[in-house]
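Training component of the fellowship. As part of building independent skills, the fellow (R.M.) carried out the full modelling exercise for a liganded target. The chosen ligand was beta-D-galactopyranuronic acid. The inputs are recorded below so that the supervisory panel can assess the work.
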Amino acid sequence: MTQRFSLSRRRLIAGGTAFAGLALTGCQPRLSGLFTGADTHPGDYPTVQAVEYMGRLLGERTGGRLGIKVFAGSQLGNERDTLEITSFGGIDFNRVNLAPLNSVEPMTIPPSLPFIFRSVAHMRRALDGDIGDEILAAMEKQGLIGLCFYDSGARSVYNTRRAIFTPDDMRGLKLRVPSSDLYLAMVNALGANAVPMPFDEVYQSLAQGVIDGAENNWPSFESARHYEVARYMSLTQHLFTPEILLMSKISWDKLSAEDQQLVRQAARESVPFMRDLWDARVESSRANIVASGVEVNDVDTAPFAQQMRPVWDQFLVTPQQQDIASRIVALGEQMAKQEKPS
Ligand code: GTR
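Fellow's submitted model of the complex:
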């Protein structure tokens, strides 16, 4: 089921002269300078802001010797392509969602399973501890250094046709998913037709009727303007798949041990910064979307969880994946118990 990155060198160069230039810098030893960063979101999005903040921290702590220039808004390509380029050393930092890594690194599966996290608090607690550290460490064999996780809130289904209350309402809808076999299976399990597509093509495809809907969090639904066309948002909250900040292992290996430490520390410090921005952004996006007249409805999530459940067994294949998934579940149960008034 897993696959290595497969972007050919020809496609890499054809992908744009920017890449070609960036890729070549990957061959030279470099101990200092302005690193490149990729992000699919626009400049004001919390993930971009967080990596820029991290770059400022690095600048302050090295007298300007290190810094990060983030190319926002998919300028360097979609997430699957930029991931491959990052693993070749053509991009230094990359902030992506775990979804496009699902078919590459098995350890990204557990936190991407439907309904595995009960809440944002559960997700944060799991990823702040050993579970998160083990998933970050697993990225190294893919040529990527996992630095930290960022929030991505809850993903819900939106579409141009009708309000969704039960899985039956999803039947026949053409729903865009990120490039992930797991996402494909999840959406198909609900009776919809999953269409894998890069994020930056979704608006146009919704507007032209190529797809009927997609699923995402409030800030992405707003910032990519999908809500202008998809006027039904149904709060399935089926996923809390987090964002991850990665560094190319090729770039990482060129840093001194002290600079590696500085990078890790700055990344860690960007997490609470991002979370504050994120919480505010979720609220403002939700308010703007509701004010624009999008029809938003709650759903009983139990039948969705039940229908999607078989993907757990289908995608949790290694003992390491199963161990991480059961620890996430156990943590959720423990947190729920503590929250219950005695
Ligand atoms: C967003 C995420 C992006 C991208 C996008 C998608 O929530 O922040 O990195 O993965 O979803 O659905 O492609």
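The panel noted the following from the submitted structure. The chain has 14 helices and eleven strands. The first strand starts at residue 33 and ends at 39.
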